[in-house]
Amino acid sequence: MNQLNEKGERHGYWEKYYPNGNLWSKGNYVNGERHGYWEDYYPNGNPRYKGNYINDILHGPWEFYWKNGNPWYKGHFINDSLNGYWEIYNEDCSLRLKEFYL
Fold this sequence. Notes:
By secondary structure, this protein is mainly beta. The chain has one domain: Single Sheet (Histone H3 K4-specific methyltransferase SET7/9 N-terminal domain). It is built from no helices and 10 strands. Strands 1, 2, 3, 4, 5, 6, 7, 8, 9 and 10 form a 10-stranded antiparallel beta sheet that branches. It is flat, with a radius of gyration of 15 Å.
């Protein structure tokens, strides 16, 4: 965990923590770039986002959350661009908007 490659770049599984001991983020690096599934958290321990990277680019399904843990945005990225249907929620979890991106 939290290893560097021969070039001094982050490589492999990494975790980062807040000063209060709660998990901040976790995921994999490949030669200094985020690659694969990642999770990020608020200092209170609730999720901030969950999603996939390919070579440090957002790609695949993503979910973003309000500080209270309720969903905020849900959808897909293709090469860092919004793609397909995205659902946007109010903080009380009620659906605010559904949008489609090409």
